[in-house]
């Protein structure tokens, strides 16, 4: 129901553009450094792990392909989403939760604004725009991480071969999957964060509880959804 | 400009057998009925958890009654949707128990908020702006003697000052009904008395119908027995035969039920041990 109301508000006046910019800044720009860091190291780790397995089959030239596919299909979207869930589902839940217990949400309704429109819609939109972008950045930086391991460090392959291999291995299917997932995760993170925040009761203690619950529930749903999507795409 | 005395008294708020049940078998409000008429002051007393805040939120449409009917400004609002409520609420001022000030906005932005967001002020196609409402905001803040704190954030203010900002935000729209939820809770007696003085002043100058939730019987006593004299700019005690005395009534809530409704004198002679906890009880206190 929250999802419906928040989505309907996207096309309804008044539109709180400033809140949207603010949220995109908080979610996107704020999460960029950590996303880059985690993306880079997941690429590094993937390449390191794969280097041993691939060398057993004498297929070290395939390292670019393996890294690209795992990153774009699964690791990039899921790791980024988990990161953002930890950082922003909790942030949203605690912010809205403290607004709830200090009666700011009631005050909004009493003073002429719809809290769903003012609080939920900008967060949902901002998340849907920024999470896919962050995921693309994480994927790309991850490929660079894999390259660092595969080429200068372990000399498994040449730079040209790595990038060529990585690029050609990605099919439309992978890209679609790699973009659909972060979009759905964004919806999960934003709505779970808002829902648990706005349902907070029981003072400051309640805010702590809502925050923890939001992260746990969002993370669980991320895994459930990724499993379902992967299952669908495997059959395609 | 003080609002003119209305030509006819009208029913501002009416509850008809209102019950609120969140979970089966336990009523937060239990068949509460009362009427408040224009110009009246109603003091709502009761232990913590007795349902005072829930009652106020029903009157604002923030919570829905499970049973019963609610009338605001003479209109049956029981089945109103959120859009219709927005209109009703724009004539109601409110001070929340927890303050409800937006902590991401400055004092000025907080007080301007209802003027910039309530549909009633958008009529005629002219959208108010921060500049266009500034004089009203300044006046409301001057009224609570906080005219110099416009650009501060609520977190930089003391508890008493935050309450006053809340009063300014509630009164800036010149509401017909003002609901104060525990305006003096957690304040020292001197600050509490300044707040009550403000409420008496506001009630006098605007002729606002006022509902005050409190657990301090001093608050009720002041509100019932004093008026603000605009010439002398101070409070003065009402003479014992004043018709104004009749305008302030007390209500006592106990576990979601309305167990008392009457004047201060009637409250004072109540023999009920729960109800008498909220009165000055001159008889027993002297002896
Ligand atoms: N949204 C809600 N959901 C469930 N119970 C509530 C809700 N709001 C208030 N209550 C319960 O209703 C009772 C009355 O609360 P309240 O009106 O806040 O009391 P008070 O008289 O102290 O203002 C309390 O027991 C409280 O726990
Ligand atoms: Mg209360």
What do you see in this structure?
The complex is a heterodimer of chains A (236) and B (287). Chain A is 86% helix and 0% strand. Chain A is an all-alpha fold and 236 residues long. Chain A has one domain. In chain A, helix 7 runs antiparallel to helix 8. Chain A is elongated and about 70 Å long. The model of chain A has no long low-confidence stretch (mean pLDDT 89). In chain B, helix 5 packs parallel to helix 6. In chain B, 33% of the residues lie in helices and 26% in strands. In chain B, a hairpin with a 2-residue loop joins strand 11 (248-254) and strand 12 (257-262). Chain B has a domain at 103-174. With 287 residues, chain B is of the alpha/beta class. Chain B is built from ten helices and twelve strands. A six-stranded mixed beta sheet of chain B has the order 6-7-8-3-11-12, with helices on both faces. A four-stranded antiparallel beta sheet of chain B has the order 2-1-4-5.
Largest interface: A-B, 13 and 25 residues
Strand content of chain B is 25-35%
* Unreliable segments of 5+ consecutive residues of chain B: 283-287
Major sheet of chain B: 6 strands, mixed
Q: What Rg of chain B do the Cα atoms give?
A: 19 Å
Please report the distance between the alpha carbons of the first and last residues of chain B. 47 Å
Count of beta strands of chain B? 12
Helix content of chain B: 25-40%
Summarize the structure.
The complex is a heterodimer of chains A (about 240) and B (about 290). By secondary structure, chain A is mainly α.
Question: Secondary-structure blueprint of this entry?
Answer:
The complex is a heterodimer of chains A (about 240) and B (about 290).
Chain A: H1 2-8, H2 17-56, H3 63-101, H4 104-110, H5 115-153, H6 159-169, H7 172-198, H8 203-235
Chain B: E1 11-23, E2 26-37, E3 41-46, H1 52-59, E4 67-72, E5 75-76, H2 82-89, E6 92-95, H3 107-117, H4 130-143, H5 159-171, E7 177-181, H6 189-206, E8 209-213, H7 217-225, E9 226-229, E10 234-237, E11 248-254, E12 257-262, H8 264-268, H9 273-276, H10 282-286
Parallel strand pairs in B: 3-8, 3-11, 6-7, 7-8
Antiparallel strand pairs in B: 1-2, 1-4, 4-5, 9-10, 11-12
Helix pairs in contact in B: 3-4, 3-5, 4-5, 5-6
The structure holds adenosine-5'-diphosphate and magnesium ion.
């Amino acid at each position: 129901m929250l999802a419906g109301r928040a989505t309907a508000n996207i096309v309804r006046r008044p539109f709180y553009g400033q809140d949207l910019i603010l949220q995109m800044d908080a979610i996107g720009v704020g999460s960029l450094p950590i996303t880059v860091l985690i993306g880079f190291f997941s690429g590094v780790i993937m390449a390191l792990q794969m280097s041993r397995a691939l060398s057993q089959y004498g297929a070290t030239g395939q390292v670019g392909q393996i890294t690209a596919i795992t990153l774009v299909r699964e690791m990039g979207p899921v790791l980024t989403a988990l990161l953002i869930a930890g950082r922003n589902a909790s942030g949203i839940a605690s912010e809205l939760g403290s607004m709830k217990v200090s009666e700011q949400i009631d005050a909004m309704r009493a003073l002429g604004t719809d809290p769903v429109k003012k609080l939920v819609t900008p967060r949902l939109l901002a998340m849907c725009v920024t999470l896919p972008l962050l995921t693309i950045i994480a994927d790309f930086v991850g490929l660079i991480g894999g390259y660092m391991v595969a080429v200068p460090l372990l000399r498994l392959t040449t730079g040209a071969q790595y990038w060529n291999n990585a690029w050609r291995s990605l099919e439309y299917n992978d890209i679609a999957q790699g973009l659909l997932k972060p979009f759905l995760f964004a919806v999960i993170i934003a709505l779970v964060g808002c829902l648990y925040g706005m349902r907070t009761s029981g003072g400051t203690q309640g805010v702590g509880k809502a925050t923890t619950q939001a992260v746990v529930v969002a993370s669980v749903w991320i895994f459930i959804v990724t499993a379902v999507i992967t299952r669908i795409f495997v059959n395609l | 400009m003080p609002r003119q005395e209305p030509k006819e008294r009208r029913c501002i708020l009416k509850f008809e057998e209102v019950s609120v049940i969140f979970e089966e078998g336990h009523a937060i409000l239990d068949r509460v009925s009362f009427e408040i008429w224009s110009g009246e002051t109603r003091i709502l007393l009761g232990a913590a958890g007795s349902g005072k805040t829930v009652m106020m939120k029903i009157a604002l449409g923030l919570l829905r009654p499970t049973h019963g009917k609610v009338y605001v400004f003479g209109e049956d609002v029981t089945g109103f949707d959120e859009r219709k409520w927005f209109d009703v609420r724009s004539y109601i001022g409110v001070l929340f128990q927890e303050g409800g000030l937006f902590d991401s906005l400055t004092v000025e932005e907080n007080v301007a908020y209802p003027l910039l967001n309530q549909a009633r002020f958008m009529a005629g196609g002219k959208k108010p702006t921060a500049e266009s409402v500034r004089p009203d905001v300044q006046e409301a803040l001057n009224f609570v003697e906080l005219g110099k704190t416009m650009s501060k954030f609520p977190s930089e203010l003391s508890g008493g000052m935050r309450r006053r900002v809340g009063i300014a935000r509630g009164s800036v729209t010149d509401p017909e009904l003002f609901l104060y939820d525990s305006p003096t809770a957690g304040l020292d007696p001197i600050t509490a008395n300044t707040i009550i003085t403000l409420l008496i002043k506001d009630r006098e100058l605007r002729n606002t119908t006022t509902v005050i939730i409190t657990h301090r019987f001093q608050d009720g006593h002041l509100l019932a027995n004093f008026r603000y004299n605009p010439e002398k700019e101070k409070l003065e005690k009402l003479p014992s035969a004043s018709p104004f005395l009749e305008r302030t009534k007390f209500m006592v809530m106990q576990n979601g039920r309305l167990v008392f409704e009457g004047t201060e004198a009637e409250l004072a002679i109540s023999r009920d041990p729960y109800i008498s906890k909220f009165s000055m009880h001159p008889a027993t206190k002297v002896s």
